[in-house]
Design brief:
The structure is a single chain. With about 260 residues, the protein is an alpha/beta fold. It contains eight helices and eight strands; from the N terminus they run βββαβαβαβαααβαβα. The chain has a single domain, classed as 3-Layer(aba) Sandwich (Rossmann fold), CATH 3.40.50. The protein has an eight-stranded mixed sheet with strand order 1-2-4-3-5-6-7-8, sandwiched between helices.
């Protein structure tokens, strides 16, 4: 593992093969990475990046993860979306971009790579705030999501607000706290949207300082009790960024979980 786990956020990665647009805004785009080798069509893997929904973090930092998934034979789309701190970001643009992009990308990827991409619903891999968006999409537009791999997700917006994760990140996303804009929390908080019928695996490190593992423990317990098809893989000694780093000790567990979701279908 690198000495600084954040190294992955700025590590260079091969350029994507193509960038496609799912809307008119410059951030309504996704970078496509073609699968290595020859083989049958596989479901698209849509990677939704984290960064607490803030403009200073973009899809670039998921380049190493996306390149590694493509090397393993998956067609990959790195979703970009409008974020807080920029026009159209926050409520409702960030949420609507996630839904629109996830729904549109399988067809866009299949057009770019005929015969290698299953144009059906994708597997969505979301990290941190991107994990929130993946869970939100599965809960509110289940026909557009084949399965979810949520890596250290912000799975409970009410608790994230109470814990003041990343100094007001949830307030910036939704425009207020649960007492001020309760309808927005009701519509977007994965913890309030259970059960969901989408197969979901959550992976979380035990020493995560950005998104405490207790959030995933509580979310998965509640979701399973409500009837969701969901499981939690807790990785002892793993922090927040190892889950998106192909050079980390956690990477093999992430790849195994993705393969299991693919094989389930």
């Amino acid at each position: 593992m690198p000495a600084d786990p954040r190294d992955v956020l700025t590590r260079p990665a091969p350029a994507p093969e193509r960038t496609v647009a799912y809307g008119d805004h410059p951030d309504q785009v996704a970078d496509l990475r073609f699968p290595a080798g020859d083989g049958p069509a596989r479901p698209l893997v849509v990677v939704v990046h984290g960064g607490f929904w803030r403009a200073e973090y973009d899809r670039g930092h998921t380049g190493p993860l996306a390149a590694a998934l493509a090397a393993d034979g998956y067609p990959v789309a790195q979703l970009e979306y409008r974020r807080t701190g920029q026009p159209g970001g926050g409520w409702p643009g960030t949420l609507s971009d996630a839904l629109t992009g996830i729904a549109a990308l399988p067809e866009l990827a299949a057009e770019a790579l005929p015969g290698r991409v299953d144009a059906g619903a994708p597997i969505v891999v979301g990290h941190s705030a991107g994990g929130h968006l993946a869970l939100y999409a599965a809960a509110t537009a289940p026909s557009t999501v084949r399965a979810v791999l949520a890596l250290a997700p912000v799975a409970d917006l009410v608790e994230a607000y109470r814990w003041d994760l990343d100094s007001g990140a949830v307030t910036a996303l939704l425009g207020g706290g649960p007492a001020e804009v309760p309808d927005r929390y009701a519509a977007t908080d994965p913890r309030l949207l259970v059960p969901t019928r989408t197969r979901t695996v959550v992976i979380h490190g035990s020493v995560d300082l950005q998104v405490p593992v207790a959030m995933s423990r509580d979310f998965v317990t509640a979701a399973r009790a409500a009837g969701s098809d969901i499981s939690l893989i807790e990785l002892p000694g793993c922090e927040h960024f190892g889950l998106i780093d192909p050079e980390s000790a956690a990477w093999s567990r992430v790849l195994d979980a993705l393969r299991s979701l693919h094989d389930d279908h």
